[in-house]
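Response to reviewer comment R2.3. The reviewers asked that we include at least one raw input/output pair. We reproduce the pair for Cytosine deaminase here without editing.
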Amino acid sequence: MDFRALPSGPITLSDVTVPACLLGQAGDLVVTDLHIADGRLTDTPGPRVDMARAMALPCFTDMHTHLDKGHIWPRASNPDGSFMGALASVRADHANWHADDLRARMTFALKCAHAHGTRAIRTHLDSIPPQPQITWPVFAELRDDWAGRIDLQGVCLIGCDQFSEDGDFRDTADLVSHHGGVLGMVTYPVPDLADRLRGFLRMAAERGLAADFHVDETMEAGSETLRLIAETVLETGFDAPVTVGHCCSLSTQETARAMDTLDLVARAGLHVVSLPMCNLYLQDRGPGTPRNRGVTLVHEMRDRGIPVSFASDNTRDPFYAYGDLDMVEVMRQATRIAHLDHSRDDWVTAFTTQPAATCGFPAQTLEPGAPADLVLFNARDWTEFHARPQSDRIVLRGGRAIDRTLPAYSDLDHLWETTP
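Raw output as returned:
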């Protein structure tokens, strides 16, 4: 068959390979039929299309991105590849983040994600005044424009040293609440972090908001803000969802201490999102060959019942020079970096159903009644899937194949030509 074309109307995708866990079954991969009618998966067979064991997955949820930073590399590269180099470059580039600039870059990124098969995105948005009053209205506009294609959820982003219950952040929190977003903050060791965390969770609780933290994005074993977040959630009884991202320092801590922290994380009910591509790029960078690669302890987390997801993080900006918001790339890289192979059979949920559940996006399964939002691959097992970039994949939305043409990078050239 021509793998790039499918007939329109009700069809049965015959002999497709799907992860058993997405059908509520035990085991790894199974071969089955998927029936599609009226934009949904159904029990009713239609005209059969022999898929020759091609793999089918539900469309992806990318739950940790930075759409506002995306694609600024041409004017704001990282001078040395370090975390501090990235931070300085982004802060300098904030001067260019007017509404038209943000709209163009964020739209470009959404076009890429949609073409690759993503249906829901949570994005962090830099929110140090006066930026929130510029960025959040653009985000709201794009959320409306992309409704039905990509569900969007926004998270404010500030450093913990910039937080105060009595300062500008109260206005930011109100803005986030107005837009139905999530309260977010970067945590790092500061003397009064416990008090700041209590105040932050108090502000989230007052507005009925979930929380999402950037946590311990460093190889310094002494950075244990993850532990403090778990302790504070338990102490305060904060009962909205709490997500923690990165958690790199766990990988350099003494084993007993790290495992004890994970026990606290499990008790506190935290959700973890791992960002292996960005962490691989930034962590332990210096002269010579890196020794520590920054991936967090995802296996040990799953063993404790901690919900774990993977996501893209940054895209062509100083924090990560590469990427295209392609969750297949995230799957392939995470499998290699974190050794997801030769372990459990349900890691695919960490790129699909788990991040959707963590963010509260509509569930996406392969069960009858679910939207026929699928990604079909010319691969019959995991080694074939991970061996190639799957650039010939088919993306179905509501049972219909979408145009997967990616935008040209030249579409953004006018931004660099007008940069002061």
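Residues 60-359 form a domain with the TIM Barrel fold (CATH 3.20.20.140). The chain is about 30% helix and 20% strand. Further pairs are available on request from the corresponding author.
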